From TrEMBL:
It comes from Citrus unshiu (Satsuma mandarin). PANTHER family: 3,9-DIHYDROXYPTEROCARPAN 6A-MONOOXYGENASE, CYTOCHROME P450 98A9. The keyword Chloroplast does not apply. It is found in: Membrane. Keywords: Heme, Iron, Membrane, Metal-binding, Monooxygenase, Oxidoreductase, Transmembrane, Transmembrane helix. Belongs to the cytochrome P450 family. It comes from the Eukaryota. The keyword Protein biosynthesis does not apply. It is a single-pass membrane protein. Pfam families: p450. This is Uncharacterized protein. The lineage of its organism: Eukaryota, Viridiplantae, Streptophyta, Embryophyta, Tracheophyta. GO terms for molecular function: heme binding; iron ion binding; monooxygenase activity; oxidoreductase activity, acting on paired donors, with incorporation or reduction of molecular oxygen. Its cofactor is heme. GO terms for cellular component: membrane.
Length: 76
């Protein structure tokens, strides 16, 4: 029970690291996500929360990363 309660403290960092590792291992997906970001947001500014609704490929990429590496499966 302690693992389930404490699971929310560190795993977001681990999930982000694993998502980035998946992107590194799948360059074709990284290229598509990059092209989508460049076309919607451009190169002159950072992605903002309001941009996310216009980035369906990026949303799908991170949903897939969460499916592959769920938060509760990462506790010791």
């Amino acid at each position: 029970m302690l693992n389930i309660c404490s699971a929310s403290s560190d795993p977001p960092n681990i999930t982000i690291e694993r998502a980035l590792a998946e992107l590194i291992n799948h360059q074709d997906i990284t290229k598509k996500a990059r092209e989508e970001i460049d076309s919607v947001v451009g190169r002159s500014r950072l992605v903002e929360e309001s941009d996310i609704k216009n980035l369906p490929h990026l949303q799908a990429t991170f949903k897939e990363a969460l499916w592959l590496h769920p938060l509760l499966a990462q506790w010791p």
